[in-house]
Amino acid sequence: MATGSNEPKSRYLRYLELITGSLEDKRRYWQYKARIKQLPENYRTAVEALERYLMHFGPADGAGAMTMYEDLAELFEQSAADGTPIRDLFGEDPVEFVETFMANYPLGQYRTRERNRFTSAVARAAGEDTGRQDRTD
User: Fold this and answer.
1) Domain of life of the organism in this record (predicted)?
2) Would you give per-residue pLDDT tens digits along the chain (137 residues)?
3) HEC states along 55-116?
């Protein structure tokens, strides 16, 4: 089913990807899962918890999310190799860690922008001068 880089995709593969999403993203996801499976148990437990959080609150698109997950795998592989304790990775506030991690990716920046827009709108509604003109479109 794989096609060469210069070979056009068959009608079947184009239709399949239309229905199921990018086959390349799916391949990347399963490679990521295989990498995570190789981590020591405590690192794997931490990554799986982080992954669960990201599934609910992180980027939803395939390519952007996969880049983030691959970077996550690399971070934990390197940390495991260096013997970095889990708490040293996450710090005292794991949510702050994951929110900062997500902000490094385009859809994470979208969330930050929307949080700022929301906060500013509430301040305006409360009659507070925010000094900003946020667009609501």
Assistant:
1) Bacteria
2) 454 555 666 776 676 666 656 677 788 889 999 999 999 999 999 999 998 888 887 766 666 788 889 999 999 999 999 999 999 999 999 999 998 888 887 765 666 777 788 888 888 888 887 665 544 44
3) HHHCCCCHHHHHHHHHHHHHHHHHHHHHCCCHHHHHCCCHHHHHHHHHCCCHHHHHHHHHHH
CA 82 to chain centre: 24
Q: What are the tokens at 120?
A: 């500013």
Domains of the chain: total: 1
Residues spanned by the domain of 37: 29-125
- Contact (CB, 8 A) for 81 and 130: no
Is residue 137 within 8 Å of 114, Cβ to Cβ?
A: no
Distance CA(1)–CA(7), nearest Å, equals: 12
Q: Which tokens sit at 42? A: 């405590």
* CA 12-14-15 angle, 5° bins: 65
Residue 111 counted as domain residue? yes
What are the CA-CA distances from residue 133 to residues 35, 129, 136 (Å)?
45, 10, 9
